[in-house]
Design a protein that fits this description.
3-stranded parallel β-sheet; 7 strands; two-stranded antiparallel ribbon; alpha/beta
């Protein structure tokens, strides 16, 4: 996308003039991300590290990815044998092992069972505690309430309100963010 007006900065770097530097600061994980299924998890992380880092940093990056994925011996199994939860863990590890300052994640627990969703939320909490800014999109307002310090509610492409979960619940007189969203959208 071309910038039509104004200026965008990410951690003080101008997106238009320092795009390569900005890319080093950000990771993005879309909901429908995939991996090369004929590779093992370890080989996939090694491949991604070879694209993302100078040779002297790759081994440490891969080890960080393996630790984040927390797949045990299955890191050496072919990806086409992974469950959806295992795949999601691998992809989150891929996104985070590069040590981004900003991680953008879309629907990170969509379609996962309770245990995998819980474990992925724990990974997100951990990376946030380590200083990574996590921006996530989700339709699961209960998850948003559990994970997010600030919430921006979007309806049909328009930002309709922003605040902490507590501020938004107080403002709308509601007990849950789901109720807040409905009230904000319907004007109730």
């Amino acid at each position: 996308l071309k910038i039509s007006s104004g200026k965008i900065e990410v951690y003080g770097k101008d997106v238009a003039t320092e795009a390569d530097e900005v890319r080093k600061l950000i990771s993005y994980l879309p909901e429908d991300a995939g991996a090369y299924k004929d590779m093992t998890g370890r080989r996939y992380l090694t491949f991604i590290a070879s694209l993302a880092a100078p040779s002297q940093e790759r081994d440490a990056m891969v080890e960080r990815g393996i630790a984040l994925a927390d797949l045990g011996e299955k890191i050496d199994f072919r990806i086409d044998t992974y469950s959806k939860g295992m795949m999601r863990r691998l992809l989150i590890a891929r996104a985070i092992m590069t040590a981004p300052k900003l991680a953008i994640m879309d629907e990170v627990t969509s379609g996962l069972d309770v245990i995998n969703a819980y474990e992925i939320r724990e990974v997100i909490r951990g990376i946030a505690k380590d200083g990574v800014t996590v921006v996530m999109s989700s339709h699961n307002m209960f998850e948003v309430d559990m994970l997010c310090d600030r919430v921006g509610m979007i309806d049909q492409g328009n930002l309709i309100d922003v605040g902490t979960p507590s501020e938004l619940k107080e403002k709308y007189g509601k007990e849950t963010l789901e109720e807040v969203f409905v009230a904000a959208v319907k004007g109730a």
